[in-house]
Amino acid sequence: MTTKTKIMKAAEELFAHGGFHHTTMRAITSKAGVNLSAVNYHFGSKEALLTAIFDMHWTPINEERVQRLSRVAKKSQEEPQPPTIEEAMRSFIEPTFALFQSGASGGYFRIIVGRALSEPDQTVREIFLHRVMPVIEMLKDLLCQAMPRTSRAEVSWKLRFALGAMSQTLTGHNQPPLFYLGEEKVSSGVVDLLIGFIVKGMQE
Amino acid sequence: MTTKTKIMKAAEELFAHGGFHHTTMRAITSKAGVNLSAVNYHFGSKEALLTAIFDMHWTPINEERVQRLSRVAKKSQEEPQPPTIEEAMRSFIEPTFALFQSGASGGYFRIIVGRALSEPDQTVREIFLHRVMPVIEMLKDLLCQAMPRTSRAEVSWKLRFALGAMSQTLTGHNQPPLFYLGEEKVSSGVVDLLIGFIVKGMQE
DNA sequence: GTCTATATGCCGATAGAC
DNA sequence: GTCTATCGGCATATAGAC
What are the C-alpha distances in Å from A35 to residues A92, A157, B28? Predict the structure, then answer.
């Protein structure tokens, strides 16, 4: 494993566990077993390291989401039927968890993302928002079509509720210590439970 | 206004805006217009200051919640009818927002609470969890009665989704910069929108 | 109770040898 | 590319004058 990879792997876990600001370069390099200067050599700064981690995991997730949302939008234009809330939300939510569950990447990255919505740290929030907002807008447009009798302001709020619920699933799945309500080992079915919750909640 | 009050007021706003760790004692005392040492003299430490802020706002909210939840539990025992999801959730959610809307206190405290669920900072999380868990347990028991056909594990997850949605409402209300989805000025009706979303989402 | 001054320590980042 | 050594800054906390 290259030094660069070792750093990213260690940083991902530490950022997930303790947050960006609380995690020090010394902790990262120590865990990775590399020299303190290596972060600045390979990434330029602590912030650039976070960005690199974010892009590595986030790009494929977002591409999948955009693809699926576009497909739903196209289908609803061809047919004379508006999209359903469920297919819109599934297109957004499923790619997020699919990557995590495939195992290879980002078991810890999930927690960073789950936390990003209520992140007080400007650095983290800006990196996150800049990448997620365009997709959110696509999703919101579809939802407005799916709920023609609901004002755009109300759709915005409902979408926000949905993202809050999703955020808790991201941080909580396999990570009880964060906020343990007990008996949360549904595991495989949780994503469907989440989607069901959101779809019913959004209904007009 | 006493020095102690001035400090608490300034700290509350800064903690809400930038998070606990990111906020420095210098920023707090400077904003409050008092000396740097005053925090340690009046509270003992930065952490104790946060605890004091938390208790000031949280105690009355929690008392109201426990009172209302107890009333629901008692009623469902006397009648042969289980409680409804709506009355259980209302008993928990409404006191939270009622205090904030009454104006006098904690406009900024709301954001601290809303963020606490996904807080990476151990200090903040522990203060919060220690105070909210008993009430959450009461609420969960009522929800299990309201959803007799749903397993406790599933109720736990649904409750978690609900808290995630609520968290977004707490941070977002009047605080667009955090995560602005646009047109979110429903304001007065947002709490009812939130409760409607949660109740429908939880339905068996 | 409130101030100044300072102790003590960790932070991110960089310079420069190898 | 990787190391050591260190810079300049800011953090919390406290000692002691007033």
Answer: 39, 46, 36
Q: How far is A2 from chain B (nearest CA, A)?
A: 29
What are the tokens at A188? Answer: 């495989």
- The answer to whether the C-beta of A8 is closer than 7 A to strand D is no
The tens-digit pLDDT sequence of chain A (204 residues) is 999 999 999 999 999 999 999 999 999 999 999 999 999 999 999 999 999 999 999 999 999 999 999 999 999 999 989 999 999 999 999 999 887 766 555 678 988 999 998 888 888 988 998 999 999 999 999 999 999 999 998 999 999 999 999 999 998 754 443 345 555 554 668 899 999 999 999 998
- Domains of chain B plus CATH, in order, are 47-202 (1.10.357.10)
Distance from CA of B36 to the nearest CA of A (A): 23
Give me the B residues in range 28-47 that sit within 7 A (CB) of strand D: 36-37, 39-40, 44-47
Q: What angle, 0 to 180 degrees and rounded to 10, lies between the N-to-C axes of helices A190-202 and B190-202?
A: 130
Closest CA to A81 of A139, A148, A150: A148
Contact predicate A157/B180, CB 8 Å: no
Q: Check if the beta carbon of residue B66 is closer than 8 Å to that of residue B135.
A: yes
What is the three-class DSSP state of B141? helix
Is there a contact between A147 and A155 (Cβ–Cβ < 8 Å)? yes
Query: B118 vs A120: CB contact, 8 Å cut-off?
Result: no
Tokens read off for B6: 């001035």
SS3 of residue A121 by DSSP: coil
Q: Which of B15, B108, B179 to probe the A interface (max A CBs under 10 A)?
A: B179
Closest by Cα among A162, A187, A163 to A173: A187
Q: Which among A181, A188, A191, A192 is the top mutation candidate for probing chain B, defined by the most B β-carbons within 10 Å of its own β-carbon? A: A181
On the 0-12 / 13-18 / 19+ scale of CB atoms within 10 A, A162 is buried
